[in-house]
Design goal:
By secondary structure, this protein is of the alpha/beta class. It is built from 14 helices and twelve strands. The chain has a single domain, classed as TIM Barrel, CATH 3.20.20.150. The strands form three sheets. The protein has an eight-stranded parallel sheet. The chain has a two-stranded antiparallel sheet with strand order 5-7. Helix 4 links the parallel strand 2 and strand 3. Helix 1 crosses helix 13, helix 3 packs across helix 10 and helix 9 packs across helix 10. The protein is globular, with a radius of gyration of 21 Å. The protein binds ligand L2XQQQDX and manganese (II) ion.
Length: 416
Amino acid sequence: MSTAYQSAKEQFAVWGVDTEAALATLAATPVSLHCWQGDDVDGFENASGNAGSGCVATGNYPGKARNFAELTADLDQVAKLIPGPLRLNLHANYATDNAAKADRDALTIEHFASWVDWAKQRGWGVDFNPTCFGHRHAADGFTLSNKDAGVRRFWIDHCIASRRIGAGFGAALGKPAVTNIWIPDGYKDTPADRFAPRARLQESLDAVFAAKVNPAHNLDAVESKLFGIGVESYTTGSHEFYLGYAVKNQIGYCLDAGHFHPTENIADKISSLLLFVPHILFHVSRGVRWDSDHVVALDDATKDMLAEVAQSGAMDRIAIGMDFFDASINRIAAWIIGARNTKKALLMGLLQPRTKLVAVETAGDLASRLALQEDAKSLPWGAVWAEFCVRNNTAPDGSWLPAVKAYERDVLSARK
Ligand SMILES: C[C@H](O)[C@H](O)[C@@H](O)C(=O)CO
Ligand SMILES: [Mn+2]
């Protein structure tokens, strides 16, 4: 134990905070690494890439993964530089085994056998996502809310297949998957009819969730969005739509930090959601103007959001995943920066002097609340983070980047 950590532990103790308890919770909370940061959401289905439909990675930094071997090598490299437990967040368009023979509506867990083996060897859980974009049946930008019943049926079957694949991962790995549905459906310009697509989406989701999938192995979630590139005026799967749907049907809600108005406070939503939905999935991300997918920074929005998670008393009902894709910088570094920041923000939240703050608030002493909130910001959380890195045999801040540079020189630069 370093002297810096010993001193930090004592300082936090004065504030009534047990750093060992915070470290134990952090060590028991996995963050789900999104596979799509490694290849700009291209997937393995065709070499041309281009996710399309409101999911756009910008930039042309060399070295992106082009296949299972490269993507898993990159994930292994990334995992070495992130302290504490991880999961994998996988999209359906990353099927590996005999997948060319099956369209998305016919995918099964067998098509992901290599991923099952890979995750099992690492002791990771896997989360899953139907891929409702970058496909001929998504060419007009509508999937589950498409006006064509045949197209809707295709995506319903894909989502059912995905829930079963999630359960397959859950059963094989002994850790339930969260299977999250996001669709790109929407209009660039003002719709004449806002009702009909939402009514169709409700009907499609009812069909998707009517299929029985073992909840011990798979948890469902639905992800809203305010707008996307090319769907600036109307998104079928809006926040209000999915909030209502999740509450009514008691399924999980996915809060993507980049999917709300730029000044909207995501942190404030958590305590309400936990009262009405069984579980929450986070897509930790960073919105910048019209983009929702910048690499996670240790900014106020991220710290506030994960502090609410840390202090919720319901971490067993919360799953933390990440969702960003930046093709303009080294993708390995992007993954590591985002994941370390997510974990740091969670740790900072776990180290908040909650008992003291609630006591003065309850007493109506709101000046003391503000004073304590502000003074607590000077507490040495960085020493606790450094201790977490040491205990997990991971390079602390300021010393992980050379390993990324070496990997870029030795591995990524060979990918032409
Ligand atoms: C690739 C993901 O499913 C996608 O990013 C989705 O989660 C989203 O956030 C779209 O904006
Ligand atoms: Mn998302």
